[in-house]
Amino acid sequence: MLDRTGLILDIFAQRARTHEGKLQVELAQLRHISTRLIRGWTHLERQKGGIGLRGPGETQLETDRRLLRDRIKAILRRLEKVAKQREQGRRARSRAEIPTISLVGYTNAGKSTLFNRITEAGVYAADQLFATLDPTLRKIELADVGSAILADTVGFIRHLPHDLVAAFKATLQETQEADILLHVVDASDERFRENIQAVHDVLEEIDAHEVPTLVVMNKIDNLDGQRPRIERDDEGIPRTVWVSAMEGQGIELLFDALTERLASQMVQYQLRIPPQYQGRFRSTFFQMNCIQREEYDPEGNLLIDIRMQQVDWSRLEKREGAVLSGFIVT
């Protein structure tokens, strides 16, 4: 009989389409099986069969454990290659200053339908759980921002099993490294508030809860009296957009809100970097392709003008601590 995690994994296995997706599901299944395997063999482990002899239960358990370990290691090696390829792609986008927008949301909220509406990519979309397992990336154009990468990701659920979080690390990293999240919500779902909280819980678990977020209340075509609109906070910043991805309502407003949010998330600083830090920080800024101008003052300090996404600056500050803040001139 399948438990909750086993049932979720079984659905995932049916939905996986790419080689990577199938590997990720198999990894999660094997990790789940390994915990159940140990419990399942416990009654046989006690069958020692006499002094100096091992019982059949213990022998079989050891064999199964070894086979599972070997297969898990093989899958991890292959997924590690995928993760490196994704990291290279992210670095290339970072160097080119191309922001990444990641779609997140409770499963069946309409993320893939919205993705298709925005990009006309023809990504598989269906009214079913976990229709998307494999991350799909497409380039889009935004006024005053330029090119951006839109990423569709796996749907979240309440209490997402830890095995799945671990197995889908490469996929979920697109969310962690995004410049902004589009949190798609099924506005017609009676439990939409609980679903929003469930997504927040998963984002916190994968350390993506601090990424700037724009909420997209989707499926307004299923509601009476709801029209496409942008809701702003007290500072006039777009926080929520009401749309219907299926009917194409409010998509232009979504583009407007995205443009506003991304354009306002650029930061520009002039830094004065002492000689002992110049090699490390200049190399970092060069890799991020954010250097606007640089020169040296009479004391040998590097004066450098940089421009980058706010989220990238925040990550850099978090990594480098107070040292970086001490360099700021303007």
Task: Give a structural overview.
The chain has helices at 4-15, 19-45, 56-95, 111-119, 162-167, 169-176, 192-205, 251-263, 275-287, 310-320, 322-325, and strands at 100-105, 136-142, 146-152, 180-186, 213-218, 229-232, 238-242, 266-273, 291-296, 302-309. 32% of the residues are buried. It folds into 2 domains: 96-264, P-loop containing nucleotide triphosphate hydrolases (Rossmann fold); 266-327, Alpha-Beta Plaits (2-Layer Sandwich), CATH 3.30.70. Strands 2-3-1-4-5-7-6 form a 7-stranded mixed β-sheet, sandwiched between helices. A 3-stranded antiparallel β-sheet has the order 8-10-9. Strand 6 (229-232) and strand 7 (238-242) form a beta hairpin. By secondary structure, it is α/β, with parallel strands linked by helices. Helix 1 runs antiparallel to helix 2 (19-45) and helix 2 (19-45) runs antiparallel to helix 3 (56-95).
